[in-house]
Each structure stands twice: as structure tokens, then as C-alpha cells.
């Protein structure tokens, strides 16, 4: 019996077993959303709730496998995603999503509010963090080329519960990131037609600050770009890399013109708000590098994952980090950081130095970059959502792939409509802080998962070695947290770092000396393991600790909402799927190994 058939009651199986080509894609009955046994009626749901303890233990200890993610879950979509992308496509998709999301959106905000001219260093720090994460993502994407990206990687190495926490943050990042980018689109469009950045928004005085500027244009832009994305991945990719030539031309212009109009005195003081502001800005600027994780979700649609993914992701991210630093430097040399516009910094800066015509050129280029960024983001968000739905953590209806377009239309609509609603109300500063914390948290978890993948193998690693791995990972994580806590609570002290940093080093040395690597990557692997993944853990935790109090409050509220959903819905759906499909050999193997 097929996996999808086993999820339904006997009287439903004949409909499910009907060939996918004979079933309408446009269907939305209850059993499409909640086919699991726990949701058949109130009695079965109450029974499921009463077994919460047993079920939670089962899900907490359960870990997926490469084979299950690659072979079994893909059947939930009924139709396959089309393998149509090459390294060239991936490189430009990554370039467009990252550049469109970052440099034009956050540079003015963070230079004005926090780092000043030292925003250049902030970009370098967040770029290093992103590049280390790219290494980890690339190894996973080559080994497990599925649409779920980090969700699938964590499900295999850290288990279902951790994967759900990541899934919730992935969806939060997707919604918030798209909403923030769409609002910036409105700001740049306003400058293009010679108006103030907020002039096209509707002010509602009765709403709280940060949520009182309604933006219907942002919502419309999101709907349009998502509509283009659902018509096909290959077509969207071709459109993206052709028009990306405009972005390259614009970037060259901004850098050259910025240095031509440079006033070195604008770089003084270089660090106006102390070194802490550099890291605070770097934490927010991590959002500017989030496009690559969306591109990693397209591994399932890549023709040759083993070669295309490393070239496409690592090559583009290295280039983007250099470009970001040069563009930020040119902006800071053109205009004093205290005078920067937080919504459309580059356009306003050119106007102030007498190049009013360039203001329109920058605005057009920025709009183009943000539009392609929204296109790529729409592709990546939908792939994340598809794999999460395949696992039944959210209704499996969202996993369905359209037979003609080869795209997950329902998943795209879910994220798009939610993001459009959020973009109507929330300011860019609110959105960027929430998205950055979620992103950094996921990057940190992926680095942990990579170390687990290298040094732990079920049925091979002894319990003694497993305890050692847990100990050394705990040392790395604890020392990283200790470093940022000490840094935030002292002004000029360094004694504490003599304890935390050597403790981090000892954790890595312990892994090197006492634990053999249990898995060697078949095609491409992260170099200098465990040092680079551990450094990624440390930097990401340090940047998380640099975010403001409000970001943690918003993150905490979102996490509570996620857990409520998981405890009452997601937990029981995934438990039913696992148990109803226990006849599949790989599932039985997983259950035995997880005991």
C-alpha cells in the first residue's frame, strides 16, 4: 500500500489510489487537510490528546533518514518537482535574492541607528557568518537534495521536535522576510515618483507605533510576484538571470559613483556608538544574506546537485559579501550616517550630492533587485512549506505539486497571503529584528546538525562516544553563550573571555582527539571540521545575543504560538503518519534505531 493511502481510512483508499493524473488538483475537502486518524472525529482527537506524553516522547526521539526524505516524503506531493536548474541558475537565483533583500533595504537603517560608518565591518561579520552557514548548507544539500532545506537536515540529524521548532522559524522567516522586502519596495517606488518614502502608506493613528502605516502596495506586489513564480521554476529562473544584468550594472555604478562623490570626513567618527553597535547591526544584517537558504531548497530541482550546488551557493555568497562591503562603504562616504534615510538610503544619498538623476536610476535598480528577490523568495518559501507539509507537520494539502506547472501552488499561496497580510501593518525595523533572530537560530542549528552528522551514526557510534559528543557540543554552545553574556555585561573587561574562549577551543579539541568521524561526504564536504561548524555556532549565537530585547520578546511570543500548534495538531499528525506507515522498511528501521 502506498504511503498516501495508508494515511486514510479504508473507505477513502480507493480515491487516493486513483492515478494522480485523474484526480483534480483543485480539491479542498477535510480529508485533504487532516487525513490522519487523530482528526477523524472528536472522540479520536480526545483519545490522541490523552496520549500526549507517549506521543511526545516518540516524536522527540524520532529521527528521519536520508532515504526517507528522498524517497518516501516526495510521494506526498503526487507529482514531482521538475529537475531543471544548473549551477548558473543557482548562482543568479542566490545573487538576486540576497542582493535584492539586503543592501538596498537595511544599510541606511543600521548605519543611521546603530553602527555608523562601521556598517562596513558589520557586513563583513554577518557575511562571514553566512559563508560558514553556506558551507554547512552545501554539504547537506549535496547529500540530501530535497525541497525542505534546513528542515529536512534537522529532521534527519536532530529529530522531529527540533525540526518542528526550525520549521516554525523557517515559516516565520519566510513570512516576515517577504513582508519586509515588499514594504521596502513601496519606499523605493515612492522615491522614484519623487515623493517621501512613507507617502504612499496610510497612517492610522489608532494603531501602535511600528504598526500604524498601512501598505496596500506591498501586499499587491507580493501577490504579483508569487503569481509569476507558480507558473514554473525554469521560466522564473531564466527571467531572473536575464534581468539580473541590470543589478550588476547598477552595483558597478553605485560603487564607482559613490567613490567619485566621496567625502572622507563622513567616515569620522568611524565607530560612533561603540563596538557593541557593530555586532548589533551585524545581527540584523544577517537578514541581508538569507537568500542562499531559499536557494538551497531548490536542490530537488537541480540537475546535478553534487557539482551545481557548491558552485552556485559558495561562489555567489563570496562575491556578495565583497559587493556588500564596497556598496556600504560608498554610501557612508557619500553621506553622513546621521543624515541617511532609513528607508531609501541610496536614492536619497545621490540626491544630496547633486546627482538627482541618479536617484531615479538607483530607485529603478533597487526595485528590480527587490522584485527578483521576491520572486526567488517565493520559490524558496514554497519549497520549504512543501517539505514541511509532506511530513504532515502542517496539512499535507500544502504539499501537492501541480501536474502541469510542476510547482507547489497551495504552498505558495499560504506564505504569500500570510506575508501580504503582515506587510500591510508592520514596519521594516520590527520585521527585520524578528527575521534575523529566526535566521540566526536556524543557521546555528544546522551547524550543530552537521557536527552530529559527521560524528554520530546510528548502530555504529557507541553510547560512550555519544556521551562524549554531547559533552563536547555542550562545551562549544555553552562557551559561545558565555562569551556574549560576558561581552554584553562588561564595558572593557577581558578576564571572562580567558575562560569562555579556551573552553570553546577545548570542546573542538575533544571532538578531534576522542571522536572518529563516522561519515565522510561522498561529493563535497565542509573543510576544517569541527572548527568551521563550531565557529558558525559561536558567531551565530554571538549575533543572536547582540539583538535588542524587543526581538527576543517577539521571538518568544512566536515560539509559544508554534508550540501550542505543535502540541495540539502537529504532534498528533506526525505521530499518526509514523505509526500508520510502520510497514515501510525504512520506517521500521528508524523506529528500531531510535529506541
TrEMBL record:
Name assigned to this protein: Cationic amino acid transporter C-terminal domain-containing protein
One cellular component term from this protein's GO annotations in UniProt: plasma membrane
Keywords tagged on the record: Amino-acid transport, Membrane, Transmembrane, Transmembrane helix, Transport
TM ranges: 85-106, 118-140, 161-182, 213-232, 239-259, 311-337, 409-428, 434-457, 469-488, 494-516, 523-545, 551-571
UniProt membrane topology term: Multi-pass membrane protein
Any one GO molecular-function label of the UniProt entry: L-lysine transmembrane transporter activity
Similarity remark: Belongs to the amino acid-polyamine-organocation (APC) superfamily. Cationic amino acid transporter (CAT) (TC 2.A.3.3) family.
